[in-house]
Amino acid sequence: MVPILTFAFAVLLLLGVLISERASRTVLSTAVLFLLGGFVLGRGVLDVIPMEPGDPAVGILAQLALFSVLFTDGMKVGLSDLRRAWRLPGRALLFGLPLTLLITALLAHYLLGLPWLQSFLMAAVLAPTDPVFAAAVVGRTEVPGRLRHLLNVESGLNDGLALPIVLVLLAVTGGTNSAIGVLAEEIGLGIVVGIAIPLIVIGLERLPFLKATKGLQPLLTVSIGLLVLAICQVTGANLFLAAFAAGITVATAAPGFRKEFEQFGELVSELLKLAAILVFGALITPTFLFNEITWSGWVFAALAIVAARPLALFISFLGTRLPAKEQLAAMWFGPKGFASVVYGLLVLQSGISYTNELFHLIALVIVLSILAHSSTDVLVAKQFQAPAPPAP
């Protein structure tokens, strides 16, 4: 299976790179290509990639991908970034995230009839956002810097903020082998490891007789990530929160490290993201999506996208002076991104009650979100373009 998966990934990667320039100007999306590629090649259609939820490759890939993404996400939101402009991201995170989670859980319980614990678990999985699927908004200079900063900081932090909620709810529903007390110790130890290791390495690098050459400086940050990963595996610390804490610590204590690592880290994270999205697509079965998800499931998926976050951010932004156009863009661009993909894989492997229903509902929301948001980002970004000067 591994050679077939590698070949499929290489072909899709080549296609994705070749269409990337056009995709940046149109409604095409590399993420959609990998998602649909995995779906078509998976067990439900062509069965070229006979991927099963219990395959070790699924768990390993999910772990590595989420670790790298949380590490690079953390490096986008050092304390200096938060101090520079924290009011709007703070509202989106402290009010918008819990409200989105609550509204989604209410929809899941009353529309789908799921138990409260499973409803809140699915809501926590779907709460994080990912600006990669709205790159035309976050990456365009014509879009106001305030809006780009809001979406960047929010999406960089909400992955890590939602993760403890997902882990606790999985433990409560019996999806992990850890009791709540043990889980709390793992989370606390992970945060300690994530802060301590970068500070020690940064301190060593600043000694007069220890200095990395400019060409190898990105590898210094890679070594921090690998050390954190290895120590967490040995000690049992939560490696995901350790990765997130390590990224924030590096960005805060050594901004130069972040700058040197940025391009390399983004490429590695993007590769792992796309591989996980390919596997995620291969695990989605058409039979369940189109035959076993009821009309209420489709209504829930639509409302989770067009109602939950927009309503939550509308409430969160009350009293601010954010222009209506920027506010509407922020309310709409809450794409369910890579963190939700991996959290969905964790739910699928947990074996809790309603596992298949939860996974396929999560998958449906993510698929619809990727299609909706990655096909409208360019259109919305164009609304912020200055009008062309009149012809002489």
TrEMBL record:
Compartments where located: Cell membrane
A GO term from the CC aspect: plasma membrane
UniProt-listed InterPro entries: Cation/H_exchanger_TM, Na+/solute_symporter_sf
GO biological process terms, semicolon-separated: proton transmembrane transport
Keywords noted in UniProt: Antiport, Cell membrane, Ion transport, Membrane, Transmembrane, Transmembrane helix, Transport
GO molecular function: antiporter activity
Cation/H+ exchanger transmembrane domain: residues covered: 12-374
Pfam families recorded: Na_H_Exchanger
Transmembrane helix in keyword set: yes
TM annotation in the entry: 30-49, 56-72, 92-112, 119-141, 161-180, 187-204, 224-250, 271-289, 295-318, 330-352, 358-380
Main location group: membrane
Membrane topology, record value: Multi-pass membrane protein
Listed name of the protein: Peptidase
Species: Arthrobacter livingstonensis
